[in-house]
Amino acid sequence: MTTTTLAVLVPLLPFLGAAAGLLLGRTAPGYVRPLAVLPTLVAAVLAVVVAARQGGGPAIDAATRLTPTGSVPIDLALHLDGFAVLVAVLVGLVATCVQIYSTGYLRDDPRYPSYAALVSLFTAAMLLVVYSGDLMVLMVGWEIMGICSYFLVGHYWETPEARAASLKAFLVTKLGDVPFLIGLFALAADTGTFRITGILGAVANGGLDHPTVIALLLLAGVAGKSAQFPLHTWLPDAMAGPTPVSALIHAATMVAAGIYFVARLLPVFAESGAALVVLAVMAAVTMIGSGLAALAQDDIKRVLAYSTIGQLGYMSGALAVGDRGAAVFHLLSHGAFKAVLFLAAGVVIHAAGTNSLAAMSRMGGLAKRIPDAYWTMTVALLALAAIPPFAGFFSKEAVLVAAEHTALGDRHVAPAAAGWTVLVAGLLAAVLTAAYATRLWLLAFRGRGAEVPDHGRQPVAMTAVLWVLAIPTIAFGLTVGVITDWFDGHSLTPTVTTAVLSTGVALVGGLVTYAAWRHTTALAARIPVGAVVAHPDAEPALVEAEAMTHHTAGYGDTPGAPDPADPGRLLLGPLHRHAATGFHLDALYTKLFVRPVQAAASLVRFLDREVVDTYVRGSGTGARLLGTAVRRAQTGNVQTYLSALLAGSLVLAIAAVVFATVNAGS
Questions:
Q1: In CA terms, which of 35, 385, 409, 577 is 20 to 30 Å from 138?
Q2: pLDDT tens digits for 601-652?
Q3: What pLDDT digit, counting tens, does each position of 542-582 carry?
Q4: How many helices (H) and strands (E) does the chain have?
Q5: Over 70: is that where the pLDDT of 307 sits?
C-alpha cells in the first residue's frame, strides 16, 4: 500500500473500532476489549511505518475536494511532514498503552464498553488533527476531542466532582474555540484557502494582511485546548476522570493539540512580533504559576496536572521564540514520561487506597508493594525534573537553547524580549519542577507509619505498559543526534551553558526540597490527618472513585488542612494557601463571569416568565373568556334563538330609521 493509504488507515481504524465497540457493547461484550485494543495497536504500527517511509524528507501531500463552498473550498487533505508522523507515533503508542491498561483498571466497570469506544474515538480525532492538511477538517477532530473529553472526564458521573469537572472542561475549552474559529475564517479570508500548504505559501509571499489579529484569535483557542493561562483552570479539575483518561489527555491528545497547531502554522504567528511576545508572556506566567501550584497540591493527580500545564508552558515558550522543533521535541518526550507518571499514579492510588500525598506520607512500605510503579515513576520524575540523561533533560534543554539564542540575538524569528522572558521563566520553572517532583516522590514512597496492606501484585496489563513507556522516557533523548531530519534539520543538542545552568538549578530545587522534608518529616506522626482509605482490594477504578469522594471528607479544605509535615508548606510559607487554590482564579472567574452570566440568565428568565408570558397568557385568557361568553348564549332553546333574532332585527330596523332621518335632515 502507498504511504497515503496507510496514513488514511491510521485514524480510520480507531474510529471503526469505536463504532463497532458501541454497536456490540451490549450484545457481544466479549468483543469489547479486542475492539478497543487491536485497532489502536494496528494504527500505532501503521503510524510507525508511515514515519519510517516519510523518513524526515519532504512533506507528503494528498488531497481530494470534500465540498465546494462557493468561496474557500474545503479539502480532505493529508500533510505528512516530520512533525506529523512522529506525533502520530506518540499518539498511537500512548493510546494503545492506555487501552491495555484500562482492561485491568476498569475490568469490572459496567460502563467499560462506552468508555473504551470513547477512548478510541478520542484517539481517532487526535490522529485526524495530526495528519490533516486542511484546517476545517482539523477543526472536526479538534471538536470531537472536546466532546469526548466531556464524556470521559465525567465517567464517574455519580460523583459531583466528575460532573462539575466535565462541564467546566467543556465550557472553558469552548470559550477559547469561539475566537479560534473566527481566527480560522479570518486566516482563510486573507489567504484564500484552508489548506495548510496554501496558507504557508501565502504567508511566505506576504499574503497575510492582518497577522496580529489572526494570531491572537488563534492563540485564544490554543490557550483553552492546551490549558495555558488564563484558560488553564479546567485541567486540574479534570483529574476527577479515570486515571487512564488523564494519561491520554495529558500525554498525547487534547492538550498537545494546541501546541501542535501552533507548530504547524508557526510562520503565521511569526508574522506578528506582538503575538509572539504575548505567547512568551503567557508561557512564562503559566510555567511559574503552575510550578508554585503543583508544590502545594495534596492530590497526587493534581500535582501531575499542574506539572502538565507547566511543561506545556515550556512548549509554548519554544514556539514564542520561533523554534517549533524544540517545541515538538519536548511534546514527544513529555508525552512519554507523563503517560508513565499518570498510569503509575493509578497503581499508587489503587495500592494506597487514597489519592492524598499527606496520607501516603503516613504509610510505610508502599514502594515495596508496587515495585513496577515505584521504579518507572522514579525514572519519569527524573525525566520531568530534566536530570540527564533522561529524555526530559534533552527536550527541555532544546527549549532553553532556543530561548537563549533569541535573547542574545543569534536568532531573529522573535523579538529578544520574548527570548529573555522564556529563558528566565524557564530557569525559574526548572527549580520549581525539581522541587515538586522531589516532594511527590518523597511523600508517596518514603512515608513513615503503618505498613500498606499487601493485596498482591497489580494486573499485568497495568504494570507491563509502564515499562513499555519507560523505554522512550529513558532513551528518546539519546536519539537527539539521529532524529534531526524529522525536525527541519535543526540541531537539538544542548549547549554547555544552559545544560550546566538548568541542571544546577534543578539539583538545587531537589536538594532544598529534600532538606525541607527531612526537617518536617519528624512532624508527620504528630498530626492525625484523618485519612479515609477506600478499599484497596477492590478494582482500581472503584478505589479511585472512592478516594476522590472521601478526600474532601477526610481533609476538608486542602489549603486549611493543618499538615506541618508537608515540605511544600514550609517552602512556600504564606504563599501556600494561595497556591493550593490555584491563586484563586476560579473564585475570580466566578465573580467576574459566572455570577454576571447567572444574573443575566435570571433576568432573562424573569422577563420571559413575567413579561413575555404575561402577554401570551393574556391573549389566551381573553380568548377563553370570549368563548365562555359565547358558550352561554348557546342554550339549545329554539324560542330563545327566535327571540334573539327578532330583537336583533328590531335593533337593525331602528338603526336604519335613525340613519335615514339623520341623512334627510342634513
A1: 35
A2: 998 988 888 888 888 888 888 888 888 877 776 777 777 778 888 888 888 8
A3: 666 666 555 543 344 444 455 677 888 889 989 998 998 89
A4: 29, 4
A5: yes
- Can you tell me whether residue 78 is helix, strand or coil? strand
* CA pair distance 131, 82, nearest whole angstrom: 11
Distances (CA, A) of 433 to 37, 226, 418, 445, 617: 34, 19, 21, 18, 63
- CA triple 97-291-512, angle to 5 deg: 105
**Do 376 and 340 form a contact (C-beta atoms < 8 A)?**
yes
Distance CA 377, CA 458 (A): 15
Please name the residues in contact with 128: beta carbons below 8 A apart, sequence gap of 6 or more. 11, 137, 138, 140, 141, 144
Nearest alpha carbon to residue 184 among 255, 125, 261: 261
At residue 528, the pLDDT reads 42
Cα separation of 299 and 566, whole Å?
Answer: 13
Bridge partners (DSSP) of residue 76 are 64
Cell numbers at residue 99, please? 487501552
Nearest to 309 by CA among 339, 279, 283: 283
Is the separation of the CB atoms in 119 and 95 below 8 Å? yes
Q: Are 358 and 531 in contact (CB under 8 A)?
A: yes
Question: How far is it, in rounded angstroms, from Cα 293 to Cα 296?
Answer: 5
Selection from 257, 270, 259, 136 nearest residue 214 by Cα? 270
CB neighbour list of residue 58: distance below 8 Å, 6 or more residues apart: none
Do residues 257 and 401 make contact, with C-beta atoms less than 8 angstroms apart? no
- Which alpha helices (H) appear in 353-410, and where do they start and end? 357-360, 366-369, 371-384, 391-407
Q: 531 to each of 359, 552, 623, how far by Cα in Å?
A: 6, 10, 66
Among 142, 1, 8, 6, smallest CA distance to 77 is for 8
Q: Which helix (H) or strand (E) holds 90?
A: helix 82-105
Task: Collect all residues with Cβ–Cβ distance below 8 Å to 189 and sequence separation of at least 6.
Answer: 72
Judged by DSSP in three states, 451 sits in strand
Task: Indicate the pairing of strand 450-451 with strand 363-364.
Answer: parallel
Whether the Cβ atoms of residue 341 and residue 304 lie closer than 8 Å to each other: yes
DSSP 611: I
**How many Å apart are CA 450 and CA 447, to the nearest integer?**
9
Q: Give me the sign of the Cα torsion angle 344, 225, 41, 81.
A: negative
Q: What's the one-letter identity of residue 270?
A: A
φ, ψ of residue 77 in degrees (nearest 5) = -125, 150
Confidence (pTM):
0.88
CA 204 and chain centroid, separation: 32
Task: Judge contact between 116 and 35, C-beta under 8 A.
Answer: yes
**Residue 464 Cα to chain centre, angstroms:** 26
List C-alpha distances in Å: 571 to 189, 535, 539: 52, 33, 37
Grid cell locating 511: 536538594
- Other C-beta atoms within 10 Å of 53: how many? 15
Quick check: helix, strand or coil at residue 492?
coil
